[in-house]
Amino acid sequence: MGRTRILVSLLSAMILVGFGVWAFMPRAIQVETAPVISGRFTAAVEETGRTRVRERYVVSSPLAARLTRPSLRPGDAVEMGQAIATLRANASSLLDPRARQELEERIGMAEASLEEASAAQERARVLLARARSDLDRTRQLRATGAAALTQFERDTFAFEAAERDLVAADRRRHAAEHAVAQMRALIRPGGEGNGDTFTLSAPVAGRVLKITQESEGVVAAGAPVMEIGDPLDIEVAVDLLTTVAVLLREGAPVSISGWGGATRLPGRVRRVEPSGFTKLSALGVEEQRVWVLIDIIAPPAQRAGLADGFRVEVTITLDEIEGATLIPAGALFRRGDDWFVFVAAGGKALLRRVELRQRSGRTAAVAAGLTPGERVIVYPPSAVADGKSVRDL
Q: Of 277, 369, 349, whose CA–CA distance to 33 is shortest?
């Protein structure tokens, strides 16, 4: 009986000791892991932008007068030279020396604008000829396999953009010529300014975008009356951080969504404006931003309903890398100036320094330190350290 009691006591003590050892043993930390893979890495930036008509022409009153109520409404089609508004002024106001001098000064400014528009038109012609030559050369090299597809796509976009720029330059020159002719008619005997009535005409063909003065009333010299443009010829304007804009290149592919249609629209970066500006963020922080202009490549039939001043979401591709080593961006963390990850191997967390190539959104590309097939710990808990036991969730 005594021996049995001793055995039971010893067994109980051993169980208690074993339980204590088990209770105080370091346990494996539960972690989430993800595989290191090899694939295509796309660095992109997402931002909200707005559409706008590429070329807007503001029709202004060349003199102080009473504007009669316009018969046109936004959306109405107009032809170049079509009468769009009527001004009534005292004939004596056109003969007043001061008014005449001001009008002559405005004519001089309009003529200077015409010279500038003519120079821009000639420059657009030269750039189009160069773009056509580059595209022809690349097409020949492409046929022999000596040119990359990306180069061919870049030159094709440059040629198409140069064509659009020339069309816009032609329209601007015609509008400048029209402005000069209308102002000269005010002081030319027998011109459109006879008596007390003067007719404003459309400088280009298009549609009325906006009526600035909808009712009859007095307008000052130079006051805008209405805006005319082509609502089908639209672009997207988006303001990006300057630190992102420096990574952009002309012709970079763009995906446009959130415009109300069922499909994404393709686009290309046409230009990054040369001057930035300061903008206050939603958190009250001053940011340096710059305007980026995007051409919509999709034909009008695929973007029916998209017009001037509409909100859109754009995704701009900054860079693409084939065969990159990819990991979740949440696996990365910094120590000093270096990037590190925890590799899960053999039930242990192994600290490893990596060389970060680029990151975009939730994905990062590393240049060295990892091999496809390994597993990294995503968002490692604070308890994880080098050599600690871990197990996957």
A: 349
CB 57 within 8 A of CB 209: no
CATH 3.40.50.720 applies to domain 55-229: no
Please write the tens of the pLDDT for every residue from 348-386: 999 999 999 888 888 999 999 999 999 999 999 988 888
As to burial, measured by CB atoms within 10 angstroms (0-12 exposed, 13-18 middle, 19+ buried), residue 61 is buried
DSSP code of 389? B
Structure tokens at 110: 């309009």
Mean pLDDT of 63-75: 86
Whole-number Å distance between alpha carbons of 66 and 88 = 5
Cα dihedral 75, 227, 305, 266 sign: positive
**193: pLDDT strictly greater than 70:** no
Share of the chain above pLDDT 70, in %: 90
- At residue 314's C-alpha, the angle toward residues 313 and 318, to 5°, is 155
Above 90 in pLDDT, residue 95? no
> What's the topology of domain 29-39+322-392?
2.40.420
Q: Beta strand 83-88 with 65-67: parallel, antiparallel or unpaired?
A: antiparallel
CB burial of 78-100 (b: ≥16 within 10 Å; e: otherwise) equals: beeeeebbbbebeeeebeeeebe
Q: Using one digit for the tens of pLDDT, what is the confidence trace for 323-356?
A: 899 999 999 999 988 999 999 998 899 999 999 9
Q: For the chain, what are the domain ranges? A: 29-39+322-392, 44-52+232-320, 55-229
Could you tell me if 137 and 152 are in contact, meaning their C-beta atoms sit under 8 angstroms apart?
Answer: no
Q: How far apart (Å, rounded) are the C-alpha atoms in residues 123 and 250?
A: 19
Q: Which residue carries 């990596």 as its tokens?
A: 354
**Residue 217 and residue 213: Cα distance in Å, rounded?**
8
Give the H or E element holding residue 88: strand 83-88
In this structure, which topology does domain 44-52+232-320 adopt according to CATH?
Answer: Elongation Factor Tu (Ef-tu); domain 3 (2.40.30)
For the chain, the helix, strand and coil percentages under 3-state DSSP, each to the nearest 5: 30, 40, 30
The model's pTM is: 0.67
